[in-house]
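Task: sequence design from structure.
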């Protein structure tokens, strides 16, 4: 799964100001700068802002954040488990029961604009086999 416009989703936790690019400057106020309320592409804080937005959403839905890997989230449904791995703006997930993967897809689409990719075959140079 891929979060569309990923880096435009996270609210800023610190004050960041930007100037308008050349050609967009207000002639009446050429020195005016603007405070960002949400992250922008290319901003060093953007991935962290997205992570915190995903963290807040997933934990509000009952997921537990990993202790060692802070980008791994889990939730148990009786004997079944759903694993969710966040890698920048990509979300990799799987479950011992397919009904929970379908539920997770719907859950994410309810909050974020997502594009669902095909079944994963490779990730970070590792071959993935799903059965």
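Answer:
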């Amino acid at each position: 799964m891929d979060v569309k416009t990923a880096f435009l989703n996270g609210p800023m936790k610190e004050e960041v100001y930007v100037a308008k690019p050349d050609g967009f400057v207000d002639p009446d106020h050429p020195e005016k700068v603007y405070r960002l309320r949400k992250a922008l592409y290319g901003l060093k804080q953007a991935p962290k802002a997205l992570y915190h937005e995903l963290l807040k959403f997933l934990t509000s839905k009952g997921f537990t954040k990993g202790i060692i890997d802070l980008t791994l989230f889990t939730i148990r449904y009786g004997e079944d488990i759903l694993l969710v791995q966040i890698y920048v703006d990509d979300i990799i997930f799987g479950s011992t029961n397919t009904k929970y993967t379908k539920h997770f897809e719907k859950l994410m689409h309810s909050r974020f604009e997502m594009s669902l990719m095909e079944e994963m075959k490779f990730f970070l140079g590792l071959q993935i086999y799903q059965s």
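The chain has one domain: 2-127.
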